[in-house]
Amino acid sequence: MSAPARRVTLRDATLREGLDTPHVSFTTEQRVGVARALVRAGVVEAEVVAPSRVAADLELVGAIRDHGIALECSGLIYASSNDALSEIDGAAHVLDHIDLLMPVSTERAPESRDAKLRALDDALVHAAGRHADVGAGFPHSLQCDPAFLCEIAALAIERGARRIVVYDTNGGGDPVAVAGLIELLRERVAGANVYFHAHNDLGLATANALAAVAAGARGLDVTVNGLGDRAGNAALEQVAMALHLKGFETGIHLHELGALSNVVAEASGVAVSKLAPVVGEYVHWHRSPSHLRAPGLFEAFDPALVRSQRKIDGS
Asked: How many whole angstroms separate alpha carbon 71 and alpha carbon 93?
């Protein structure tokens, strides 16, 4: 009897990261529509609260719930913010999950290691007192001393963090570096439930996400169409398909990916390239004469998985 497929959680961050995309804004109605489409596609958790606009984004959670949308909502709070404790108070009974952020680069405040540890410790203890389901996220994880990342991650788990989020904040990581860091955390930090957050500045976000999973990460942050800051994030549709083909279980309904992509493209105003992997118009369109006799040999996946149809151009 074969072993069951390993489960990987895909946490969608479109409604948070998407608003960091130049010229993108969502009305409340559009954000509710995206939330609905995410649920139809099998997404269980969405990150909807940004650390720069906690109070405003918490109002969206109420709108999602008022519409009866069964989506777990999570959000980010900077542990060292002057308003961190009051923001935790406001979010603790609204959000399903809170991730407290502590940038681990020495070039971001607080600069000293001890100050970072103290601030995160204080915020986690406060969150525990509010009975919040809390995790800890570490921006610049691939740009810091790995030993310090392990130290602060161990502190977070000791103080009740249920997951550790590793951020490739500048998108400069590669699959070897990402896998090595995830393996190190899992080896040195007992009980580390690791998530990975990829950026796509070098076009490696999907590859880095897969490397993180291969190294033992249990969850990934993704966005629909790769929407996000600068060059965007790991695209939900690419990651979900790649994991499916490699035998992982995500709970994502692949046949809904095209419709979800269209909802986000319309709401954001950012068009999907015809060459986009998985959901692009040209993915199953064959023109080269050498392909035409057996086009399936030249496709990474069956078009039926995404309710697409193969197109043959014999001209």
From this structure: 15
3-state secondary structure the chain: CCCCCCECEEEECHHHHHHHCCCCCCCHHHHHHHHHHHHHCCCCEEEEECCCCHHHHHHHHHHHHHCCCCCEEEEEEECCCCCHHHHHHHHHCCCCEEEEECCCCCCCCCCCHHHHHHHHHHHHHHHHHCCCCEEEEECCHHHCCHHHHHHHHHHHHHCCCCCEEEECCCCCCCHHHHHHHHHHHHHHCCCCCEEEECECCCCCHHHHHHHHHHCCCCEEEEEHHHCCCCCCECEHHHHHHHHHHCCCECCCCHHHHHHHHHHHHHHHCCCCCCCCCCCCCCCCEECCHHHCCCHHHHCCCCHHHHCCCCEECCC
Nearest Cα to 225, choosing from 279, 180, 293? 279
Amino acid at 58: L
What's the Rg (C-alpha) of the chain? Answer: 20
Entry pTM: 0.96
Name the phi and psi angles at 12, rounded to 5: -85, 135
Q: 54-74, pLDDT tens digit by residue?
A: 999 998 899 999 999 999 999
Q: Is residue 1 pLDDT above 70, yes or no?
A: no
The average confidence (pLDDT) of the chain is 96
The two tokens of residue 296 are: 């399936």
45 forms beta bridges with 72
Q: Is the pLDDT of residue 189 over 60?
A: yes
